[in-house]
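Narrative summary of target 7.
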Amino acid sequence: MALRINQDHQRFRQIVKGKIRQDLRKFLTRGELIGKEGKHLISIPVRGIELPHFRYGDNNDGGVGAGDGNVGDPVGDGEAGPGGTQPGRHILEVDVSLDELADILGEELKLPRIQPRGRHNITSQRDKYSGIRLAGPESLRHFKRTYRAALKRQIMSGTYDPENPLIVPIRADRRYRSWKTVLKPQSNAVIVYMMDVSGSMGDEQKELVRLEAFWIDAWLRRNYQGIESRYIVHDVRAHEVDRDTFFRIREDGGTKISSAFRLAKDLLRQHYGGDEWNIYLFHFSDGDNSSETDSRDCCRMLREDLLPTVNMFGYCQVASAYGSGNFINVIHEHLDEEEKVITSRVNNKDDIYDSLRTLFSPGK
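Modeled conformation, tokenized:
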């Protein structure tokens, strides 16, 4: 019976995944899914399926509840409203792990598995004390637990004297700390997100960045045992911020993209060696910059300082009515031959699906 139930549950999960695959493009653009993120689970509304359940036969006994009544009698004093003419649509919220979503994302977008470099297989071992045993080395004897066991034994046997509270543990009273060895993966990848927060980047543009960054993060975390994320925002100056600030900050003013690249270069030099870390840089902007000179300086910094140490640099340009949108053209002009540089355009939420495929199709 248990085996049959497990088989039914597995078939149900396959049906759920099939429904998600059918509507994957729509799910990628649902900002509320990010807000539902719990402990690695996301609740997704799926239409047209029901949970497996027992279905019982008709009950021919008359009566409503425990009182008098006939089948078909209305409940309550109110009048029944007119019946509907359309069939109901069943909506079920199912919990799907981020790993499952990332796998579906990779399968549907035909994304190749990322090939990490450096210490991507190294894990550190540590001992975690997780309980109490009746045997063990004397160095791990738990004195308080041993005393309590001896006290309990003497009280139960009637040998405890309150006037002379001498507690003498015997061998059976001894308690020892127990442990288990756990594998702790080392953080071997870092994502540096950079975003233009100047006046031309409005709420709509930031929402596009938020959605794109969420799915980038989900895919990379599926490919690595451990990962770190760093966040940089900039207008004419760049600052490192936390995740919440990155997605909520509102600023105004001009744009100097090189300030973000310079801060990213310093951050990597101080904390992340290219030989030991898998480094991913992502920059989000509407393509507006203070000058052509600064745009060329950005390309120079990428070629000389950043690209030699990173796995990839992804530039995602979002559409804005106020930005010039020229930075992506400068990148194509100066860095078109660089395999580590990948660019994409996101004009609306529907473009996120194709943008993710573009950014990760090399599998770097």
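The chain has three domains: 1-52+90-108, 126-183, 189-360.
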